[in-house]
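From the shared-data thread, chain only:
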Amino acid sequence: MPIEMPEQDPCHICQVVNGVDNTWTRVEERDLCLSLMSAEQFEIGQCVVVPRRHAGTLVDLTSDEGLEIMIAAQRLMRAFIKAYDPLGVLLFQNNGAYSGQRTPHFHLHVIPRQVGSDWGVGPPQLARLQNAGRIGPPEHVVLGSERLSRVSTTPEVLLQRAEHLRKFLA
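Structure, as tokens:
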């Protein structure tokens, strides 16, 4: 029995990859994948790495796509360390609707963690971060419209952040 995927037609990430939707900013382009800065900035600089080809989950990726995605994530992590001096860098990826995947296109989150972030949805172990410099306890809540409005960023701000990050990808 296949993993149940979230329903979304058309696929939002495919729209971004194909240039139909410009709400996310391209940070780096590779042959098989893109590094994108999400319009929802729970952490400053938060990115995802996506395959150019539509692939729903990790098992749908080719070996070449998986390798290139990990190389791109590693490059982002190195750039985050130089650009933002984070407390840590979180990588995570959901497979299927019941794991929390909201878009039916594989995407690997690469997130520089900072003091006082607006992060909250994620693995339960993130709660321990309040003892590592976080201000206040993390909010483990479903994404609501108020919270999304707090973290939504303008295209101009995303472009500035992407340009800053690109300086450290060289």
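The chain is about 30% helix and 15% strand.
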